Amino acid sequence: MLPGFKVLSSFLFSIPVPSGMILSRGFLLAAILVSFQIAYSDDGSVGDDALRPLITTSELVVGQNRFAFGLLKSGKLLEHADVELRLYAIDGQEAQLAAELKPAYQPLEFIQRGQSVHRHADGTQHVHGSGDSDVRGIYITQLAVGRPGPWGIEILARSGEGPLETARFTVMVLDAPATPALGSPAPRSRNLIASDVKDLHQIDTSPRPDIRLHRVRIADAIAQGKPQLIVFATPQFCTSRMCGPVVDIVRTLLPTYGKRVAFTHQEIWQDFAHKKVFPTVEEWWLDTEPWVFVVDRDGIIRAKFEGLVTAHELDIALQGMLKLNSARHP
Q: How many angstroms separate the Cα of 50 from the Cα of each of 15, 22, 89?
């Protein structure tokens, strides 16, 4: 495994809320600070009845951040819950409420037909299309953070007529991203394409690899002045409870943008058994997956998404990038 490469298992954070506790603006911040904690496993150790956020965004930086997550309760993913997110600035032993947000539930537009099997990093298998474990949407909001260091997040959720559930956890905010930053040049990678291999399964673990996603090298598209959408994902080797058909979601955009934008899927694992990643993954400094990058005709990164992303979000990013290209290159 690449040094520092971490498989994106679900980041699960939660604590029980003492019986009778009333959650309000007046809730003691000191008590909240003490309760912020993190659990990193998906083994049910925090209790099946506890609300368990499944965080798909691990990289947060000073400034504006897309923050996406799922919610797990009693083994089921909660959809269309009424959710509030509170952001706390932590300074030593003090915490101050910085923002109150209403994350929106965004359905994944792609509807998966039939069943597919993903293999997790520990060798276990997860069958999609099997019921309550399927991911059909995510909660998305924007976090604006003013400084690096620890920040506290409190999520309050109510599903239907059920009780109010609460989970608290901390996140670390960086000065700058470890992955290629917005507005920076995209790495000039010479990723393997269809003409380099005898079988597309050598560079794509999708059940039915799409050759349209393996026609262009990233470096060549930049040299040709071709805008790009690049998805880094491993369809077969699912690494998170929040597995989602990211490559298939990307494919839904091909009919609309395929003639104007080069679409590339970069598989993560060159050798899954030995945890060896493809060189392009290393060149982009990716420690998690999936990632999607939108690159303009000048080779500059204009949008990036970690974890599950909706076709609607990608559509907006592509429209914005193409509009900017037209303005700069009339």
A: 7, 17, 25
Which residues lie across from 277 on neighbouring strands?
269
Q: Report yes or no: 115 and 58 within 8 Å, Cβ to Cβ.
A: no
pTM for the structure as a whole = 0.81
Q: Which residue has the tokens 């990632």?
A: 291
Q: Token pair of 312, please?
A: 């609607």
Taken in order 299, 192, 257, 137, is the CA torsion positive or negative?
negative
Residue (of 244, 319, 273) closest to 123 by Cα position: 273
Mean per-residue pLDDT pooled into runs of 10, the chain (330 residues): 27 31 35 39 52 92 96 91 96 92 89 44 43 75 96 95 92 96 98 97 94 98 98 80 79 96 96 91 94 98 96 97 92
How far apart (Å, rounded) are the C-alpha atoms in residues 202 and 209? 10
Helix segments in the chain, DSSP class H: 29-35, 218-223, 246-251, 254-257, 279-283, 311-328
Query: Domain 11-174 belongs to what topology?
Result: Immunoglobulin-like (2.60.40)
So where are the chain's domains? 11-174, 194-328
